[in-house]
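It is worth pausing here to work through a concrete case rather than discussing structure prediction in the abstract. The textbook approach is simple: state the sequence, then state the predicted structure, then interpret. We follow exactly that order.
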Amino acid sequence: MNKPQLICLWIGIALIVLAGLLPPWVEVYDDGQVQAGKAIGHAWLFAPPEPGYRDAGMHLDYGRLLLIWLIVAGVTGGAIASFRHWQPHNEADR
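Step two, the predicted structure:
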Protein backbone atom coordinates (compact mmCIF):
# COMPACT_ATOMS: atom_id res chain seq x y z
CA MET A 1 0.00 0.00 0.00
CA ASN A 2 1.47 3.34 -1.04
CA LYS A 3 1.36 6.68 0.80
CA PRO A 4 -1.83 8.14 -0.80
CA GLN A 5 -3.66 4.86 -0.18
CA LEU A 6 -2.66 4.94 3.50
CA ILE A 7 -3.82 8.54 3.78
CA CYS A 8 -7.19 7.61 2.23
CA LEU A 9 -7.50 4.62 4.55
CA TRP A 10 -6.84 6.67 7.69
CA ILE A 11 -9.24 9.42 6.58
CA GLY A 12 -11.90 6.77 5.97
CA ILE A 13 -11.31 5.22 9.40
CA ALA A 14 -11.51 8.66 11.03
CA LEU A 15 -14.81 9.43 9.25
CA ILE A 16 -16.33 6.11 10.31
CA VAL A 17 -15.31 6.71 13.93
CA LEU A 18 -16.67 10.27 13.76
CA ALA A 19 -19.97 9.02 12.34
CA GLY A 20 -20.15 6.53 15.22
CA LEU A 21 -19.52 9.26 17.79
CA LEU A 22 -22.08 11.62 16.19
CA PRO A 23 -24.80 9.17 15.09
CA PRO A 24 -28.21 10.10 13.73
CA TRP A 25 -31.05 10.03 16.27
CA VAL A 26 -34.76 9.43 15.93
CA GLU A 27 -37.47 10.52 18.37
CA VAL A 28 -40.05 7.78 18.91
CA TYR A 29 -43.49 8.57 20.34
CA ASP A 30 -45.76 5.75 21.53
CA ASP A 31 -48.81 6.28 23.74
CA GLY A 32 -50.41 2.89 23.12
CA GLN A 33 -52.66 4.11 20.31
CA VAL A 34 -50.35 6.23 18.18
CA GLN A 35 -46.80 5.31 17.25
CA ALA A 36 -44.63 7.78 15.35
CA GLY A 37 -40.96 8.45 14.69
CA LYS A 38 -39.20 11.65 13.64
CA ALA A 39 -35.58 12.06 12.59
CA ILE A 40 -33.89 14.54 14.93
CA GLY A 41 -30.44 14.81 13.40
CA HIS A 42 -26.97 14.09 14.71
CA ALA A 43 -25.83 14.40 18.32
CA TRP A 44 -23.04 13.04 20.50
CA LEU A 45 -23.37 9.33 21.29
CA PHE A 46 -23.01 9.88 25.04
CA ALA A 47 -25.27 12.96 25.15
CA PRO A 48 -28.43 12.18 23.14
CA PRO A 49 -30.88 14.98 22.40
CA GLU A 50 -33.84 15.47 24.71
CA PRO A 51 -37.24 14.28 23.42
CA GLY A 52 -39.78 16.97 22.64
CA TYR A 53 -42.71 15.08 24.21
CA ARG A 54 -43.17 13.59 27.65
CA ASP A 55 -44.03 10.11 26.31
CA ALA A 56 -41.32 10.14 23.64
CA GLY A 57 -37.96 8.45 23.67
CA MET A 58 -34.74 8.83 21.73
CA HIS A 59 -33.15 5.99 19.79
CA LEU A 60 -30.21 5.65 17.44
CA ASP A 61 -31.23 5.55 13.80
CA TYR A 62 -29.31 2.37 12.97
CA GLY A 63 -30.45 2.32 9.33
CA ARG A 64 -29.07 5.77 8.56
CA LEU A 65 -25.89 5.08 10.54
CA LEU A 66 -25.29 1.90 8.54
CA LEU A 67 -25.95 3.80 5.30
CA ILE A 68 -23.41 6.48 6.30
CA TRP A 69 -20.83 3.81 7.14
CA LEU A 70 -21.41 2.03 3.81
CA ILE A 71 -21.07 5.26 1.83
CA VAL A 72 -17.84 6.21 3.62
CA ALA A 73 -16.46 2.69 3.15
CA GLY A 74 -17.37 2.72 -0.55
CA VAL A 75 -15.83 6.12 -1.21
CA THR A 76 -12.74 5.16 0.79
CA GLY A 77 -12.40 1.91 -1.16
CA GLY A 78 -12.78 3.78 -4.44
CA ALA A 79 -10.14 6.32 -3.43
CA ILE A 80 -7.75 3.56 -2.41
CA ALA A 81 -8.35 1.73 -5.70
CA SER A 82 -7.79 4.90 -7.72
CA PHE A 83 -4.29 5.29 -6.21
CA ARG A 84 -3.18 1.69 -6.79
CA HIS A 85 -0.86 2.60 -9.72
CA TRP A 86 0.43 5.84 -8.17
CA GLN A 87 4.13 6.45 -8.67
CA PRO A 88 5.98 9.14 -6.71
CA HIS A 89 7.62 11.83 -8.81
CA ASN A 90 10.52 12.36 -6.43
CA GLU A 91 12.18 10.74 -3.43
CA ALA A 92 10.37 12.96 -0.89
CA ASP A 93 6.97 11.44 -1.82
CA ARG A 94 8.01 7.88 -1.00
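Step three, interpretation. The chain has one domain: 3-83. The chain has a mean pLDDT of 90.
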